[in-house]
Amino acid sequence: xxxxxxxxxxxxxxxxxxxxxxxxxxxxxxxxxxxxxxxxxxxxxxxxxxxxxxxxxxxxxxxxxxxxxxxxxxxxxxxxxxxxxxxxxxxxxxxxxxxxxxxxxxxxxxxxxxxxxxxxxxxxxxxxxxxxxxxxxxxxxxx
Length: 143
Prior knowledge:
Elements: H1 3-10, E1 16-17, H2 23-33, E2 37-41, E3 47-52, H3 53-63, H4 89-99, E4 103-108, E5 111-117, H5 118-142
Parallel strand pairs: 1-2
Antiparallel strand pairs: 2-3, 4-5
Helix pairs in contact: 4-5
């Protein structure tokens, strides 16, 4: 299975924030959408970074509550790894696990197509395993 199969089920809606927005406003966006991260986009929808719950916790730990008045770009993660729709779910899971992040933008030909989370990847792997097990049961019964 590929990343495209996740996007087909999940959809391509992407929650974004701007680098100059205040951390408090961004945390409200995450809360409102019930998500753990938002992409930080610049001109031309270029990915500048990702702001995650972890980034917010780190900001408060380092600066205190004054961090909420600081711009997102002071705390966002800028080393953003992306994947393509044709990438395998196994590859994406491996990259996310090794690099210890939970959200990955899906990009092709410089165009942002969506974002997948480790939860999306795990759910898809479980669904695939269940379908495979059911197919094997049917094969055994029919054999």
